[in-house]
Write a structure and sequence with these properties.
The structure holds 2 protein chains of 2 kinds. Chain A is an alpha/beta fold. Helix content of chain A is 43%, strand content 12%. In chain A, the strands form 2 sheets. In chain A, strands 6-5-9-7-8 form a 5-stranded mixed beta sheet, with helices on one face. A 4-stranded parallel beta sheet of chain A has the order 3-2-1-4, sandwiched between helices. In chain A, helix 3 packs across helix 6, helix 14 runs antiparallel to helix 15 and helix 14 runs parallel beside helix 16. By secondary structure, chain B is α+β, with helices and mostly antiparallel strands. A 7-stranded mixed beta sheet of chain B has the order 15-14-20-19-18-16-17. Chain B has a 5-stranded mixed beta sheet with strand order 2-1-5-3-4, sandwiched between helices. A 3-stranded antiparallel beta sheet of chain B has the order 6-7-10. In chain B, strand 12 and strand 13 form a beta hairpin. The longest helix of chain B is centred in the N-terminal third of the chain and has 16 residues. The radius of gyration of chain B is 28 Å and the shape is elongated. The interface between A and B is medium-sized, with 32 and 35 residues. Bound molecules: flavin mononucleotide (FMN), iron/sulfur cluster (SF4) (3 copies) and FE2/S2 (inorganic) cluster. The site of one iron/sulfur cluster has 14 residues of chain A, from helix 14 and helix 16.
């Protein structure tokens, strides 16, 4: 299993351009792209590689790039999404801290391919030290003339700006992010218009996740066929799985798509803490539906997880052992979405709050059996009906919990209390 | 021009038309809260969700453009479920205080509740506490707990009044509408937010609790306060009283807006200082008389020793508040009955902006000009007439309205009127001018008569009688034709419409104007 994204994470001073160039292939992909390839060829190569967005929705990156208008005579932008606020997700942070030039190189290639001269990296507010590391890397890239005017002696110029967010999850949603860059309140825009036509400042914009861009230099260096050879047919390449929760070795693991969840938990992450019993796993960040211990043979790729009734999301695996109260999990998650919804859409504003109120009541022992169907009905009214996917993201975990752990909710209601002694009221 | 199917009807619409617009134009109901024709599309309330075949999810009708061969369902089970969902979400934290809410009867929430709501509440949690009833502006009260966060008011203040004082603060279920610190919802059009607020969250302090809206009748008219001629509805009850003006849509004139000054001017009509009887000066006092007596005194006063009208010594100062019909009758009376060319008018000027409010503070200065109420054929202008008082050239003045007082030399004019032999003032309200008159004639306001005004851009529009004139007061056209008859010059008119037909014959620009064509959107005379 060849690692390429995290391969150099442990090289001393891996975040410096010196270390990056010392590897031999550092910034070689930019040279190749700018000097040997046309923008169309790059987009074609990325398309062929099957690279899918790593920000949660898995949209094919090359296809997205091809939506950008060509020669429109107006500014075009790239936004790199480093907001990384989905609970359980901490992979982009690793890239930024330990190999930021890999990201910058991907951004330069993307910008050249789409005819973009200005790139914004929108980084979550809490990533203060990471923003510094990133800025330092960008400064180095300017000094070494990989950024700025006429890079590598070509007529291509590019500037990268780091934009720090204010700490709102909703600013990770693509158009919420663009509003935020413009200095407005972070509220997603209704679609249409779509960002490829009307993005930042009203101009064509492509947005991708940090990790998505970080794959690009490798695809250019080694070719789409190499990339396609990793992973599964429809989920190509390696990806970063961030494992957290009740495991012995939480952390970020670079593995090919298609690896089993079991392997990740028990081999890479070292198994369950205290060798406890596994109870449930959230496979792809807080928005994805929970799986039970009996489902962990599932392969970690887009299609397999879809079949299992969940999704791979951001690859953020949250592991919970038998001490976990699933109602409390519901409380914590629904509180998060209630707190983070921007509140524009009726369903999302009211539904997130209502769900949280009901689940909290159940956890306190004041639930009634009919509340469970009400919860499901609220979730179904929230799903698919709003401006952005936060409303769905709030509905899914509740649906997942009630699907697999309904008995535990019922037990709370029957006993009029939380049966888990170490669980506390939310 | 795409052709599509909506609820089994096949419709062709202009390119770029949204599903919602197409539906509304074709009598298909799609409930909506945040959409408002004159504001940008927001898309936040999600009430207008419809099902479009081949689309994976429901889509909002207000922001989806019609495409060829689209098949839209506005009442499918999926749609009805989503709508009931939105209604339920809107209502769980709503106070449901309809019995004491001023919006009752014109509330969207109430209306849709009957049609799409769920019958009983499943909400067991504590309702969110919100600020009750606070003054958000000079004219407006805000009941936060009724607000459904449709953001119409926010968009109005950003896009229309361009003052931007209102915003949604905080986020999620803590979101609330408020004004920026140190500001108030005090723009010149602030009360429009109470029109467009679909619920009872923003209400007019002036109208609050006065009357249940279903007791009101609406009469289509024109705001009299400036030369823009905003289209309005006069709302009256069967007690012959006006309760409010509301803007009425006319995209050539005022869209669906009006200024607060115009809106609240209905109070002028109710005011205590209305003239309700003809008055005749006796000594220091003015005493009420019957019409016939007043008119015969004037008829005498307007004549010279020879018993003929004292034409050259008479001046007539017309009103920019006249309807076109009244202006026309007035100039005929002056020129034909009194044989004088000394006719002029003036209009008070004031604040203007680049939205609706115009400088001329009267409804019809343009019509006054069109009806030839300016001096012609050697006739004297206002300043010449005033100068003529001191030289003895002008001995008699017939003044309608008090706009003269808006002139810089107003006070001076007032003084010089003492030197006249005979002064007749015809007006709606008591004024410094009327107090000086030998005879005062009480006239009806625009709300108490029919007629037309021509706005600053040459659009002729109709006003309609909404209430009876108080006391013995009469519309100016009636007074003038009666006076003319009293002087032996018969000008019989049964209605302003009849006068307009005569205007059409005499004034070339108005040749195509008639009441039927004017209807409720006006016609242009260029
Ligand atoms: C509420 C919400 C929050 C999101 N937060 C992030 C985020 O923090 N980082 C991210 O890359 N994408 C996030 N996304 C997904 C973005 O909208 C967008 O799909 C993504 O940045 C596109 O990049 P990709 O195609 O490379 O995945 C979020 C989406 C939603 C609805
Ligand atoms: S779905 Fe929720 S977070 Fe997204 S725009 Fe609507 S209210 Fe805001
Ligand atoms: S106050 Fe009225 S118009 Fe403004 S957001 Fe609330 S409901 Fe809408
Ligand atoms: S702008 Fe003029 S016509 Fe319109 S409402 Fe105001 S005063 Fe009346
Ligand atoms: S009317 Fe369409 S979303 Fe509100």
């Amino acid at each position: 299993m060849e690692k390429y994204l995290t391969k150099n994470f442990d090289v001393p001073n891996s975040e410096t351009i010196k270390a990056y160039l010392n590897r031999g292939d550092g910034y070689k992909a930019v040279e190749k792209a700018l000097k040997e390839m046309t923008p169309e060829q790059i987009i074609e190569e990325v398309k062929k590689s099957g690279l899918r967005g790593r920000g949660g929705a898995g949209f094919p990156a090359g296809l997205k790039w091809s939506f950008m208008p060509k020669d429109n005579g107006k500014p075009k932008y790239i936004c790199c999404n480093a907001d990384e606020s989905e609970p359980g997700t901490f992979k982009d942070r690793q890239i930024i801290e330990r190999d930021p030039h890999q990201l910058i190189e991907g951004l330069i290639i993307g910008a050249y391919a789409m005819g973009v001269n200005t790139v914004y990296i929108y980084i979550r507010g809490e990533y203060a030290s990471q923003a510094k590391i990133l800025q330092k890397a960008i400064d180095e890239a300017y000094e070494n003339r990989y950024l700025g005017k006429n890079i590598l002696g070509t007529d291509f110029s590019i500037d990268i700006y780091v934009h720090r967010g204010g700490g709102a999850y909703i600013c990770g949603e693509e158009t919420g992010l663009m509003e935020s860059i413009e200095g407005n309140k972070g509220q997603p825009r209704k679609k249409p218009p779509f960002p490829a036509g009307y993005g930042v400042w009203g101009y064509p914009t492509t947005i991708n996740n940090v990790e998505t861009f970080s794959h690009v230099s490798h695809i250019i260096n080694k070719g789409a066929d190499w990339f396609k050879g990793i992973g599964t047919e429809k989920s190509t390449g390696n990806t970063l799985f961030g494992v957290s929760g009740h495991v012995k070795r939480p952390g970020v693991y670079e593995l090919p798509f298609g690896v089993s969840l079991k392997e990740i938990i028990y081999e890479h992450a070292g198994g369950i803490r205290n060798d406890n019993e596994l109870k449930g796993v959230i496979p792809g960040g807080s928005s994805t539906k929970i799986l039970t211990d009996s489902m962990i043979d599932v392969k970690m790729d887009y299609d397999s997880l879809m079949q299992a009734g969940s999704s791979i999301g951001t690859g953020a695996i949250i592991v919970m052992d038998h001490t976990t109260c699933m109602v409390r999990v519901g409380c914590v998650l629904s509180h998060f979405y209630r707190h983070e919804t921007c509140g524009q859409c009726t369903q999302c504003r009211e539904g997130t709050a209502w769900m949280h109120q009901i689940i909290s009541r159940i956890e306190k022992g004041e639930g009634e059996i009919e509340d469970l169907d009400i919860l499901l009905d609220i979730a179904s009214n929230m799903e698919g009906n709003t401006i952005c996917a936060l409303s769905d993201a709030a509905a899914w975990p509740v649906q997942g919990l009630l699907r697999h752990f309904r008995d535990e909710f019922e037990e709370h209601i029957k006993q009029k209390r939380c049966p888990f002694t170490d669980s506390f009221l939310v | 021009m795409p052709t599509f199917t909506i609820d089994n009807k096949t419709i062709t619409v202009d390119k770029g038309t949204t599903i919602l617009k197409a539906a509304l134009e074709n009598g298909i109901k799609i409930p909506h809260f945040c959409y408002y024709e004159k504001l940008s599309i927001d898309g936040c309330c999600r009430m207008c969700l419809v099902e479009v075949e081949k689309m994976p999810k429901l889509t909002i009708a207000c922001n989806t453009t019609v495409a060829d061969d689209m098949v839209v369902h506005t009442h499918s089970p999926k749609v009805m479920k989503a709508r009931a969902g939105v209604m339920e979400f809107q209502l769980i934290n709503h106070p449901l205080d309809c019995p004491i809410c001023d919006q009752a009867g014109e509330c969207r929430l109430q209306e849709y509740c009957f049609e799409y709501g769920v019958p009983h509440s499943r909400f067991k949690e504590e309702k969110r506490k919100k600020k009750k009833r606070f003054s958000i502006g000079e004219h407006i009260v805000f009941d936060e707990d009724r607000c459904i966060l449709c953001r119409r008011c926010v968009r109005f203040c950003r896009e229309i009044s361009k003052t931007g004082e209102v915003a949604v603060f905080s986020r999620g279920d803590r979101s609330y509408i408020d004004i920026y610190p140190g500001r108030g919802l005090n723009n010149k059009y602030s009360l429009c937010t109470t029109d467009i607020c679909p619920v009872g969250a923003l209400t007019s302090k002036d109208f609050r609790f006065k009357v249940r809206v279903w007791f009101l009748t609406e009469i289509e008219s024109i705001c009299p306060e400036c030369s823009n001629g905003c289209n309005i509805k006069i709302c009256v009850r069967n007690n012959n009283k006006i309760y409010r003006y509301l803007p009425r849509q006319n995209d050539k004139v005022n869209d669906t807006w009006m200024c607060d000054g115009g809106r609240l001017s209905y109070k002028n009509i109710l005011s205590e200082d209305r003239l309700t009887q003809p008055l005749v000066k006796s000594g220091d006092k003015q005493t009420p008389v019957k019409w016939d007596e007043a008119l015969s005194i004037i008829a005498k006063g307007f004549k010279g020793k020879d018993g003929k009208p004292d034409g050259p010594h008479i001046g007539g100062i017309a009103s920019p508040h006249f309807t076109n019909e009244e202006g026309f009758v007035f100039q005929r009376f002056m020129r034909d009955a009194l044989e004088t060319n000394n006719i002029d008018f003036t209009v008070i000027k004031g604040y203007k902006d680049d939205m609706l409010i115009k400088e001329e503070k009267a409804a019809n200065p343009r019509g006054a000009k069109d009806m030839t109420l300016s001096p012609r054929n050697g006739g004297l202008s206002i300043s010449e007439m005033i100068r003529g008082i001191s030289t003895g050239d002008i001995k008699i003045l017939y003044i309608i309205g008090s706009d003269l007082m808006g002139l810089e030399e107003g006070e001076m004019i007032l003084d010089s009127l003492g030197n006249l032999d005979f002064l007749v003032v015809q007006d709606t309200h008591v004024s410094a001018l009327s107090r000086k008159a030998d005879v005062v004639l009480p006239s009806a306001t625009f709300a108490e008569k029919d007629g037309t005004f021509t706005n600053i851009n040459g659009i002729v529009q109709r006003i309609r009688k909404a209430v009876d004139p108080p006391g013995d007061s009469l519309p100016d056209w009636k007074i003038i034709s009666r006076l003319s008859k009293a002087m032996g010059y018969v000008m019989e008119y049964n209605s302003p419409e009849e006068i307009m037909n005569e205007i059409a014959k005499e004034i070339p620009a108005y040749k195509d104007v008639n009441y039927k064509k004017i209807e409720n959107q006006g016609i242009s005379v260029g």
